[in-house]
Amino acid sequence: MVLTSREIASVILIGAAVVVVLAVPKFRAHMAPSIRAVVRAAFVLRLVWLYIVVVIMSVASTGVAWLIGLWDVSLLKDAAIITATVVFPMTFRSLSFKSGGELTHALVRDTFALAALLTVYLDAAPLPLGWEIVYQLAAIFFITIQAFASTKAEFAPAKKVSDVSVFLLGAFLLIWTSASLIQTPPDWSDFFQSLFFGFWLPLSLLPFFYLFGYFAVTETTLARFRAFRKPLSPRVTTAVMIGTRLRLSLLTRLTGRYKAIADATGFRDGLLKMVQFRADLDRRDAEETERLRRLSAGAGATGVDDDGLHRDRREFEVTKKRLDWIWTCQNGQYDRQGGRYWDHLTDLIVDAEKHGLPADHGFLVEISDSGQTWRSWRRTPGGAVLAVGGRERRSMFYFQGDEPPDTWPSGSVGGWRDAAREAWPPDWNHNDGTRL
Predict the structure, then answer these.
(1) For residue 345, what are the CA distances in angstroms to 258, 385, 389, 430?
(2) Separation between Cα atoms, residue 221 and residue 237, nearest integer Å
(3) pLDDT at site 27
(4) For residues 132 and 126, is the Cβ–Cβ distance under 8 A?
């Protein structure tokens, strides 16, 4: 097992970083406590056992690959790298997937991308050692700038420069690798053996990832019952596992909404409650399908229906939620703004990108000359106008119409409704949210 110049350069840079952290007192003082905390957290007994199990599974998969001719000792380095960069991360990521299909899609995508990267990037055509160090330093620098610059809009120019730089570094490596492979073709048998083994090792562990994810989500679900309701008895726990049919997609939807399962008197009652749980999921799925169908069918329609609801309901849910948040922030900021409502924080409060809205989001906040009355409105893509406002601390008024409000919030004036004392406008009273 011989290291390439690319791998040697990586070892040198990692070693240099460790030496700098240990040798420079300022770095050591700042980073040593954090490093110790990370090490302690990473090597608690429960995680150590998990690491052992993951390594055993990886070794077992590699052994099967050896039996069928996909692996030999020359690929020992590949097995270690794939275990560290794919198998371990996917084991922990399996906790966050909502279904087996989602897990499978992510595993296949990451496996094919990373296996090709490892085969071509690490082994095919490394640069001379000196240039490898320079290249990797440049890559680390620009990727760090790229990640940091993506956190705030004001860093957009730096992000563009880093994006272009990372693209050029990737293009250079692709050209270099392609030219090297053309000039000095590799042993294609070894090349494809490495490539196929890179596919085999993670994909063959899919059942392990699934079972680990299911076990971890089960533990989380049982802990939630213990914390907020009462512990499930072994019989009811068995009923829950049978009732979810060992499907991750069902188990992840066993939320606090179904806490009554904890009241099951035994195994049979637990099974009955799980039947009711699945029936409720089916009902919600059907309602969500119908909601999305109506949302799609109503796109472009004009006017309101017999219930006073606008027919085109695109972005109604996010608009109402953002307007409610503006109301919350108006009341929260009142004292900080010197006993006045604000009209200059709209972009910050709306946070359009986070909520899937365009940068030109269309929310407008207006205040009276005295700063004691305010209103905020937005026109949805279908042309409806929704608004919220207030005139005393904590007061809330809702509005719907086809044109923006031209009066200040007041009960039953200009289309405004006092949310605490009057019936809400139909668009505000309607649930546009997901049924799931």
Answers:
(1) 39, 21, 15, 28
(2) 10
(3) 73
(4) yes
Residues in CB range of 126: below 8 A, 6 or more apart? 4, 5, 6, 7, 132
Query: Is the pLDDT at 227 greater than 90, yes or no?
Result: no
Q: What separation in angstroms does the CA of 200 have from each of 100, 103, 196, 230, 390?
A: 19, 16, 6, 43, 62
CA quadruple 215, 219, 224, 230: dihedral sign: positive
Q: Is the pTM of this model over 0.90?
A: no
Cα(153)–Cα(295) distance, integer angstroms: 32
Residue tagged 């269309």 (tokens): 362
Q: What is the DSSP letter of 99?
A: S
Question: How would residue 174 be classed by pLDDT, with cut points 50, 70 and 90?
Answer: confident
Encode pLDDT of 62-93 as tens digits: 999 999 998 999 888 888 888 988 899 889 88
For residue 262, give both structure tokens: 């904890």
Long-range contacts of 330-333 (CB under 8 A, 24+ apart): 330/374, 330/376, 330/390, 331/390, 331/393, 331/394
Q: How many CB atoms lie within 10 A of CB 197?
A: 23
Confidence of residue 186 (pLDDT cuts 50, 70, 90): confident
Q: Can you read off the two tokens belonging to residue 432?
A: 């546009």
* Phi/psi of residue 341, nearest 5 degrees: -80, 160
Q: Which residues pair with 389 in a beta bridge?
A: 375, 397
